[in-house]
Amino acid sequence: MKIVVAGGTGTIGQLIVAAGRERGYDMAPLARSTGANVLTGEGLDAALAGADAVIDVTNTMTLSAKKARAFFGTATSNLLASAQRTGVGHHVALSIVGIDNADASYYAGKLEQERLVEASPVPHTIARAAQFHEFAAQILAGSNGPFALVPRTLMRPVAAHDVAVHLLEVADSAPTGRSRDLVGPRDEVLVDLARKYLAHRGERRRAIEVRLPGRYGANLASGDLRGTDAALQTTVTFDEWLAEQPTHP
Ligand SMILES: NC(=O)c1ccc[n+]([C@@H]2O[C@H](COP(=O)([O-])OP(=O)(O)OC[C@H]3O[C@@H](n4cnc5c(N)ncnc54)[C@H](OP(=O)(O)O)[C@@H]3O)[C@@H](O)[C@H]2O)c1
Asked: In ligand 1, which atom is closest to the CA atom of 131?
């Protein structure tokens, strides 16, 4: 089975490609560095030719709703159009648990992505997951200097590796439109994870919690991102994950 991973060089994309190869799938990462661009459409048909499934984990880092909608809207439209031309049997889109009340900022792009996938004739599954354990490091990477501002975020984080394995299982199953949400085993607060991560790495920066304004900030602080009891729950905690991470850059 050939699986194309759009965004296959990113944080979760690399884990999907590696986990898929371990399980014997023919894995094909797709990114600008492999010669394909989801925004211009360049190289997509060649990359998707012969694929049984596409897992879309492309990403852009922005808090602008306009930029997020433009990125995820264009990327999703181009991938779905190429999937239709090349006869891909299953489009799997990774989205985020608990964002329905936050059609704003970055999440506006993810909801736009979901709407386009739902409306597409390409057989598809939207798979939502909670924030990755890796998310704290991603937030910290966005700032330097002695203080790192961390938005107040109530979450139930999950190891990206567990999300990768889940997405492979979804891709290798019949398209269902929407799979069950996937969350981690424990409720956490992002700033605590950021502080643990900095301590683990021996970094002297201080993480300061801030409340972000607007609907996006309210959603992060509301607990909605923790999902509901109907979600699938994984077992690897943030502390267990962190213990396996390198202590130096
Ligand atoms: N981080 C979380 O906690 C979390 C939780 C739940 C869901 N998600 C979702 O997971 C997805 C992936 O997140 P991530 O953190 O793994 O992202 P990431 O590390 O930023 O990786 C993004 C990937 O997208 C590729 N990409 C960006 N622009 C592209 C373009 N124009 N054409 C082709 N490829 C392009 C990048 O490769 P190049 O730059 O080489 O092109 C890279 O492989 C996102 O959709 C996000 O919403 C994330």
From this structure: 3
